[in-house]
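A.,

Following up on our hallway conversation. Structure tokens first:
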């Protein structure tokens, strides 16, 4: 069986994660690396793969079957569009773009070039979340009424030595909370409006260190999300779910979904409901769903291969990436204005 040839554009922190998973896989192979940095060139040499200063040369010379775009946010749409123009499917790191307008260009490009885009919201590929979605779809929770997510952790002071991380846009709403917003969209449904407050009281930088938001979902459910990079806390998906070894694992939960018939906590997938009488004086049962383990980055790459082969459609499309970005930007907007921010689909897309 021939291996699917993937190129990686941008070999920084997350690009190396993808490269590592490609190199360890049995059915994928690295077609080349494009990254103008010296570190990128050194990495390509150490792996004995072709290195390119310019990603366009990589696309035209190596002719990969798929490309992973793992460059800074502002470059995602231009690079991905160049892939699509050549008929090369793209896995684009999150956020799909810097702005909703840019993301819209990508949605249009995908339609124009009839080539698929997968956005790298990797948590969707975690078997825990796939199982949670099945539990919800099978109606075990009844109608969802509320969902809550915690994303609280302590970033080291040195993290803020880099200037952009102290400025507007460089904070935990766009960098971290976006993952939780996407997870809630994946599990609960579309978000239609957001109210929020943000604070920089602890670190005192221009950017927020803490934010709280209230979400309204299209299906009528309500949600709350809390994010802070200045709190000492174990309550965040990265710690609880054990997706990445650089975060010591904590045996607590970070996400909670309540429906009319039951509740689900994550990542432990414990299902709470009533067996007999159903009211707050009755005994509740706690059902432990079988453990679901798997490296979401590996699962995401296997899904990308299936998207390239045409056997699966993207689990996180360009439009999904746009809607998640839009809801996340709405948290920032609502916090800045003190007004509720709506997340309606841009008119041009609702007509497509
Ligand atoms: N899904 C996740 O878990 C996750 C985690 C971290 C970062 N990210 C996302 O991945 C992207 C990259 O983040 P990072 O932390 O790896 O950043 P990084 O700064 O570590 O790496 C970016 C790399 O891109 C290279 N680059 C810049 N412009 C380029 C171009 N035009 N062509 C080729 N290479 C170019 C840089 O030289 C650098 O090596 C961001 O969008 C970020 O939000 C996702």
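Then the amino acids I'd put at each of the 352 positions:
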């Amino acid at each position: 069986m021939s291996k699917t040839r993937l190129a990686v554009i941008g070999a920084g922190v997350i690009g190396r994660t993808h490269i590592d998973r490609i190199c360890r896989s049995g059915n994928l192979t690295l077609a080349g690396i494009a990254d103008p940095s010296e570190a990128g060139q050194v990495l390509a040499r150490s792996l004995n793969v072709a290195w390119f200063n310019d990603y366009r040369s990589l696309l035209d010379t190596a002719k990969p079957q798929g490309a992973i775009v793992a460059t800074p946010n502002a470059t995602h749409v231009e690079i991905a569009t160049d892939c699509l123009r050549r008929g090369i499917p793209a896995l684009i790191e999150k956020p799909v773009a810097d702005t909703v307008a840019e993301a819209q260009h990508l949605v249009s490009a995908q339609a124009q070039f009839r080539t698929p885009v997968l956005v790298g919201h990797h948590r969707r590929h975690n078997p825990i979340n796939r199982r949670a979605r099945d539990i919800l779809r099978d109606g075990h929770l009844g109608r969802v009424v509320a969902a809550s997510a915690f994303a609280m952790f302590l970033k080291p002071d040195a993290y803020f030595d880099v200037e952009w991380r102290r400025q507007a846009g460089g904070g935990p709403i766009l960098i971290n909370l976006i993952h939780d917003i996407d997870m809630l969209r994946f599990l609960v449904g579309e978000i239609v409006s957001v109210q929020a407050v943000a604070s920089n009281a602890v670190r005192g930088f221009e950017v927020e260190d803490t934010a709280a938001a209230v979400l309204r979902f299209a299906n009528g459910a309500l949600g709350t999300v809390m994010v802070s990079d200045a709190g000492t806390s174990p309550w965040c998906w990265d710690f609880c779910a054990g997706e990445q070894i650089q975060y010591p694992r904590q045996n607590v939960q970070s996400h909670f979904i309540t429906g009319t018939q039951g509740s689900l906590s994550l990542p432990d997938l414990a299902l709470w409901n009533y067996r007999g009488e159903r009211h707050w004086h009755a005994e509740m049962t706690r059902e432990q769903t079988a453990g679901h383990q798997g490296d979401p980055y590996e699962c995401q790459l296997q899904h990308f291969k299936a998207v390239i082969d045409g056997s699966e459609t993207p689990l996180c499309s360009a439009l999904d990436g746009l809607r998640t970005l839009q809801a996340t930007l709405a948290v920032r907007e609502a916090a800045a204005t003190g007004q509720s921010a709506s997340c309606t689909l841009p008119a041009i897309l609702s007509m497509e």
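The two ends are 39 Å apart (CA to CA). Curious whether your intuition agrees with the design.

B.
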